């Protein structure tokens, strides 16, 4: 069946120093179902810079999916309950000059786990757009492509249009990001600007290998106690609906191997990961390097799928910091 790429799993992270810094002033803006925008109010320096650039600055607009209903803006649960409306309105004017971290989360991610990554990037002066995926986006790829197009349209409209971006894809997030790449490849003239805006991309524990690796990922993620049964059922499903599943996956793999995003990349993976064929992963990295992509990687002999930060916190963070500091994004050049 060829080499296949898909990401499923769960990440647990240690608390970061930003917990006490950002939460108090963090704003969460629901764009549509599964997509949330996080940002902090402008600092004094940013306000001054913004006034210099545009004395008649207008609050950004947020595209909303028709199926999602009206978008809503809410402070996080630990924000002060007496926050005024004017304070919230002020926070809406988050500087559109800030880099945007596009975070594709793992399947079934919980708020606490995602917050650790979110705060990590907020602490480095970036806004965060969280994109969560459903297992059905993978099991029925046409829905995944539709979702990818929805995310793509959001990124091409205010307040995200034109902004420098960094991608961090974890677990199923790697698959979802590939669906966006598919649309870029299919209509390069229309979406070329988006690929050029991406200054770097990070992948944590991609599931790389065969259909069997993908089936194992589904079983371990959805019903760990019945992993073998789910794996067998998934393999049967892939066989019965090959033209609607496996064939789509093959296309996605080709798109990923020849990704239109050629910015520096970072891969985290381990040799004992049952959902990752190490040889295939290293071959992928070699292919990208041959294409001229600056690829960084960190491989461990023993770790836990999509939980490298928990298993190797110092190593993970130092590798990530070194990578971010190498990017041409001023706000990334800080200490984690």
Automatic annotation (TrEMBL):
Molecular functions per Gene Ontology: serine hydrolase activity
InterPro entries per the record? AB_hydrolase_fold, DUF829_TMEM53
Xref: Gene3D superfamilies: alpha/beta hydrolase
Entry-linked SUPFAM superfamilies: alpha/beta-Hydrolases (SSF53474)
Protein name stated in the entry: Uncharacterized protein
Q: Which organism is it from?
A: Oreochromis aureus
Q: By which gene is this protein encoded?
A: LOC116334404
């Amino acid at each position: 069946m060829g080499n296949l790429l898909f990401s499923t799993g769960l990440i647990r992270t240690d608390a970061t120093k930003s917990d006490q810094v950002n939460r108090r002033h963090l704003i969460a803006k629901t764009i549509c179902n599964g997509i949330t925008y996080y940002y902090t109010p402008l600092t004094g320096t940013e306000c001054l810079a913004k006034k210099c650039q545009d004395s008649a600055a207008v609050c950004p607009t947020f595209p909303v999916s028709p199926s999602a209903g009206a978008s809503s803006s809410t402070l996080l649960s630990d924000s002060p309950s007496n926050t005024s409306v004017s304070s919230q309105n002020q926070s809406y004017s988050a500087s559109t000059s800030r880099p945007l971290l596009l975070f594709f989360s793992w399947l079934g991610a919980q708020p606490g786990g995602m917050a650790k990554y979110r705060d990590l990037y907020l602490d480095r002066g970036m806004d965060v757009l969280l994109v969560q995926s459903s297992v059905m986006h993978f099991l029925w790829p046409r829905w995944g492509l539709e979702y990818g197009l929805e995310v793509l349209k959001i990124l091409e409209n205010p307040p995200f249009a034109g902004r420098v971006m960094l991608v961090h894809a974890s677990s199923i997030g790697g698959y979802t990001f590939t669906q966006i790449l598919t649309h870029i490849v299919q209509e390069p003239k229309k979406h070329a600007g988006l690929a050029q805006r991406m200054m770097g991309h990070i992948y944590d524990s991609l599931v790389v290998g065969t259909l069997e690796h993908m089936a194992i990922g589904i079983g371990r993620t959805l019903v760990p106690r019945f992993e073998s049964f789910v794996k067998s059922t998934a393999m049967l499903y892939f066989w019965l609906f090959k033209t609607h599943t496996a064939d789509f996956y093959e296309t996605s793999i080709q798109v990923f191997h020849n990704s239109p995003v050629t910015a520096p990349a970072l891969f985290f993976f381990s040799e004992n990961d049952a959902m990752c064929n190490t040889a295939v992963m290293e071959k992928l990295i070699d292919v990208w390097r041959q294409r001229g992509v600056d690829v960084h990687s960190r491989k461990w002999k023993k770790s836990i799928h999509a939980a490298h930060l928990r298993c190797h916190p110092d190593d993970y963070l130092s590798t990530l910091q070194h990578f971010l500091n190498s990017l041409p994004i001023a706000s990334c050049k800080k200490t984690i």
